[in-house]
Amino acid sequence: MIRNLDTTNPDFADRLAELIRFDPDNTLKVQNDVAQILADVRDRGDVAVVEYTARFDDRAVTSMAELTISQQELEQAFQQLDPLIKDALQSSAVRVREYHERQKLALGGGEGWSYTDQDGNELGQLVRAMTRVGVYAPGGKAAYPSTVLMTAIPARVAGVAEIVLVVPAPKGEVNKTLLSAAYVAGVDAVYTIGGAQAIAALAYGTATIPRVDKIVGPGNIYVATAKEMVFGDVGIDMIAGPSEVVIVADDSARVDWLVMDMFAQAEHDELAQAILISPSQELLAQVSARISEKLPGMPRQAIITESITRRGCLIKVTTLEEAMDVVNRIAPEHLHLAVSDPDSLIAEVRHAGAIFMGHGSAEVVGDYSAGPSHVLPTSGTARFGSPLGVYDFQVRSSMIRCSAAGSVKLSRDAAILAEEEGLHAHAESARLRVEG
Is the full-model pTM beyond 0.90? Predict the structure, then answer.
């Protein structure tokens, strides 16, 4: 049921490219639908948001007040949690906060930097947090409280003053653990709206929902398309595709662990992708057999089956070094080095959103409890994209302070170059500083 590829086959490169290609269906229709929603929300604000929410989420609502979750409701949801869930939520929040506090320190404490050159000019960069950020958290097929922690906490650590959360609530049902995560993360405002209309409300603002500086968080194809279309009016983190994992394994790996790691990725949705790469044909054969054995007992069997059949793969390579070449071609969201000596391979990784080192470092801990954000570049964008972090919620301003001597020297050079470009007012502006 799962396809097999071999790097020794002459058509391997073409078949790999086909495997990892993601082309959403009905792209043009989605774009047209989203464009209409965005324009409608921009023009009619709250009224349009309420209408689309009633229509798409099957809710009998008539006002934004019915879609607004108060801080008191967030706290109540948290206090009503099962103690085990409450403890896990708080522990994960602490780890996410600790990781991003260290990230902020590594970036220079978030204040910026400067230096003085030999002519006494002070040059540097001021770093400031964004004022208001919007977080989108999925709430359809599966609600993800972890997404709230992984987006809102880095924003708060960065110093963002106001965090607005939007989450769809089909038929009016809201996941209490998700609301609890918003409480733990310190989210300022929560609205139970989703889809393109939620993105439009955050991007343009309405009478109720304030316009944000940036929108972060994953969603379905309508959400991703809307984020792409509002970029420029507002910042976005990335255009997220289906979740994916690539596992590189040797004979030291445990078959049951590998199979369940692949299932863990595949159960996200039918378009999720799980790929296993190994130089061991015996290991690949054992994994293939065990997939067939264990799949019937999985609660989300239908989703896993569709994902594994359509986009899953077992790839035979000749060496672990060749495996890393395949990894870099894929540029996966998650990379798990399930080998006896992962440190020997880490230097070969050029493109990966998150790297899990060794058998005990399951990708699932990155989803929930390790600390780094699980919002990661997908669909090959790890070639140029990075995990969501403190830096995504900061803006930087160049700072220039000329000394008396530096003003003359720099202005002289600027005047010469401005004349060369035919910008005479530029040149004169600089010459006035030279002449004093």
Answer: yes
